[in-house]
Amino acid sequence: MQHINKSIWYKQPAKEWNEALPVGNGRLGGMIFGGIHQERVQLNEDSVWYGGPRDRNNPDALEHLPQIRKLLADGRLKKAENLAALTFTGTPETQRHYEPLGDLLINMEHKETETSNYSRELDLDHAVTKVQYTIGDVTFNRETFTSYPDQVMVIRFTASESNSISFRTLLDRGNARNYDELEAISNHSLIMRGETGGKDGIVFRSAIKATAENGSVKTLGNHLIVENADAVTLILSAATSYRYEDPEQQCLKTIEKVSAKTYQELLQHHIEDYQKLFNRVILNLGDDNEENADLATDQRLELVKEGKEDLSLISTYFQFGRYLLISSSRPNSLPATLQGIWNEKMLPPWDSKFTININAQMNYWPAEICNLSECHDPLFEHIEKIKKNGKKTAKSMYGCRGFTAHHNTDIWGDTAPQDIYMPATIWPMGAAWLCLHLWEHFEFTRNEKFLKNSYDTLKEAALFFVDFLVENEEGLLITTPSVSPENTYILPNGEKGTLCEGPSMDSQIIFALFTSLIDASEILDVDQAFRQQLLKLREKLPKPKIGRHGQLQEWLEDYDEEEPGHRHISHLFALYPGKQISPSTTPELAGAAKVTLERRLQSGGGHTGWSRAWIINMWARLEEGELAYQHILQLLKSSTLPNLFDNHPPFQIDGNFGGTVGIAELLLQSHTGELHLLPALPNEWSSGQVKGLKARGGFEVDLSWEKGELTEGVIHSLNGEKCAVLFNNERKEFETTAGHTYPLVFNHES
């Protein structure tokens, strides 16, 4: 068995998809079921999407914008919403959807059926899944990984006795209904050909090659057949027309290149590449709980559900989140979707695309603090696609400069509104929120070259609001029309509405966007006139307001909400991931944020996995370690599937990523300009250590603590910026030199 924190393992094969184990290299993914007689590896390639790019911008939007604004200003909600449903929704109403690549099906020819000593494991240290079992006197092993350097999936079969391995295998997609051809192209290789439907649908290819040590390999029909081998290596590649002129040639070229290497070399390359990222962060919550060592992961999860403590499961969950980000988002891949890259359905929930009114952003919350900056790259590349389309949407729908996007986007960077769902559809803030990730990346890395390259994108996102904002009677600059995702408010006369003017979240996002640009233009010493303009506009944005219940207002007016336990807590954006509200800088607003959270939770909030994960981060920012810890337990108890995937329900990966960053935020925060060490340490985590978390300003932090007291703290300065550190209300400031390490000494008061 692996180190208890770095392994997820089971004593039985997966009965269904939510029990299978994920592997991935950013672009190519698989779910390993670990069957004994029949193995299924469900396959994904990140660019297998239905249909090509389209212009879905509603041609009647701009003409009706003044009328919709007037109806909202006059409080005629129903009329405004009815008109908006016709003129402001996309034509057609939905974007493109993600599809599976298919399945690799392997039928093992075992002579007997009696099986013993079964185990299946995902080794997080090496990013390899392992299946092992004994039949008769022979022990069989299967190892699977997807390599980023070699861009293939590799499956290795070995056995304790020679000539024991025989199987038939083929590729499939929807029981042979969703591909065009499966052909044997040599006596050891197969290729699957097809294209997704719709106009300009994407052409996909997947090829597989078997290499046997002793024994024989042949093809019959469209099956690949291995007989009596000592060991076998299967190599699978996939490519699509989204990236390649000739995906088939690309597939075969990749396999050819990889075939020249031994299994050991492929494995070694893969592990070295993966560990460069994975090994940067170590987390230990004083939890090497030996009595749990022989309990499988699903058994441990059951015990947590029964109220047992298992701190090492929390460290495992944290590292599993980092593993998932490395596996679903690497340079040159697409960003992680609602399901990372792992999706088995031809029509997945919410199309398994990029939902940008929180979910896609949450996927990337751990990227910087958890020391995986490179995994952020695919999102930045995708923002450029959105920018191109978003300029068109800004101009044609709103008559504005700059660019905008609504609450979803797809592989083509579509920016027109998605669905006809009033609580979410008409919300022009998606691009602005995404662009804050560019600033966040700069804050952690302090890479000025990156900032210089991103400046135009940030500026274009802000420019949209320079034109879009409208001054209301109070002299405030507001967004209209918009919504507070995805909530419904009630007017004093009992009328319900979703479309509105100036929801709190919008002002908070624009405040953060304008602030990042003001800072960026100062750092780069450019664009002074624009900076002055933004400073003036920022002054006139609505400030966060406290309502009659002592809560933070979700809307410009202090309306009641239809669903007090709503899963979205949009108006607390300023607390997390924003930084406009914090206990040290705005204690009164932090108090109101606390009331808001309590009110949501009393009414059953946090019932979806990602919503619970967001709540962990908000309690962390309010420095309420105990409450955050209770929600970490709740996330495991009520929103975690047997394979540790997050459950919305159904499976959605954002909760994994939100939970991972929440654990980090309890140990280190840096959003107020200082490195706050152990800002919200739960009592249960009285001893532990963490190494390699990143902080804004270009620092890496190692901490050890015992009985809740810091015993060791080391700051690594990556850029030589000035460092301010806070622990237990004791503040230190010191100059640093890039590449140097600074041990911290604190006075321990009894």
UniProtKB/TrEMBL annotation:
Highest taxon in the source lineage: Bacteria
Pfam family, one: Glyco_hydro_95_C
Keyword list, A-Z: Hydrolase
Alpha fucosidase A-like C-terminal domain ranges (all copies): 669-730
Domain Glycosyl hydrolase family 95 catalytic: 262-667
GO molecular function terms attached to this record: alpha-L-fucosidase activity
Gene Ontology terms describing biological process: carbohydrate metabolic process
Domain Glycosyl hydrolase family 95 N-terminal: start-end pairs: 8-243
UniProt protein name: Glycoside hydrolase family 95 protein
Species assigned in the record: Gracilibacillus salitolerans
